[in-house]
């Protein structure tokens, strides 16, 4: 528009409308925590058993994973002025034994030590097969060489806390797993009396 003003006739002015910027939606601390949890690098278990490659029907099989990984892991993510840290802590190992049964252990288990007398050792994590693995799939195709797929799955409880916004709590459980093959044979005794 053009306005005539005292001392300066014909001076022009232009009005410009500047709308108020839309408010930035607040960042959800739990969403940032979920992003942190997704970036945690959790190890898969290293599966061990005794007997190691071939077990036997009605013989207790010791089960354990590498105990050095049995501790918490964490990661942090940030967005929109909010920083959240997620911490994954191992709670249990579930062993799927390949024969339809499973065992849940509250820790990594205890490694069997061949140099120590069996009567001087014990484990809270073991399983006894009631049937052999004969007839199960085998890598070579021989039904007498069949094995059970044994899977160890670690459950990780995830907690989180944040900085820059109030929040904290728990997130869905994470799971890492590994699988090995275990032959189970039937020992038959012969009475010669």
Features:
single chain, 193 residues, three-stranded antiparallel beta sheet
Notes on the protein architecture:
The structure is a single chain. The protein is mainly beta and 193 residues long. The protein has one domain. It has one helix spanning 29-38, and strands spanning 2-5, 8-12, 47-50, 54-56, 60-65, 73-79, 82-96, 102-105, 126-128, 148-163, 168-185. The strands form three sheets. Strands 4, 6, 7, 8, 10 and 11 form a six-stranded mixed sheet that branches. Strand 7 and strand 8 form a beta hairpin. It is elongated. The mean pLDDT is 88.
Structural class: mainly beta
Task: Please mark out the parts with pLDDT under 50 across 5 or more consecutive residues, or reply none.
Answer: none
Q: Write down how many β-strands occur, each being a DSSP E stretch of 2 or more residues.
A: 11
Give the termini separation.
122 Å
What count of domains describes the coordinates?
1
């Amino acid at each position: 528009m053009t306005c005539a003003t005292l001392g300066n006739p014909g001076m022009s002015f232009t009005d410009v409308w500047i709308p108020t910027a839309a408010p930035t939606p607040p960042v959800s601390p739990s969403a940032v925590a979920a992003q942190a949890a997704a970036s945690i690098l959790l190890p898969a278990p290293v599966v061990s058993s005794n007997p190691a490659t071939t077990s036997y029907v009605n013989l207790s099989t010791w089960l354990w994973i590498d105990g050095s990984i049995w501790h918490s892991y964490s990661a942090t993510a940030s967005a929109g002025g909010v920083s959240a840290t997620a911490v994954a802590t191992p709670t249990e190992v579930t062993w799927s034994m390949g024969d339809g049964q499973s065992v849940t252990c509250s820790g990594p288990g205890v490694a069997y030590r061949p140099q120590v007398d069996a009567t001087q050792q014990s484990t809270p994590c073991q399983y006894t097969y009631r049937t052999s693995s004969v007839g199960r799939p085998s890598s070579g195709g021989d039904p007498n060489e069949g094995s059970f797929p044994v899977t160890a799955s670690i459950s990780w409880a995830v907690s989180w806390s944040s900085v820059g916004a109030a929040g904290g709590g728990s997130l869905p459980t994470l799971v890492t797993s590994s699988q090995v093959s275990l032959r189970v044979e039937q020992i038959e005794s012969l009475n010669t009396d």
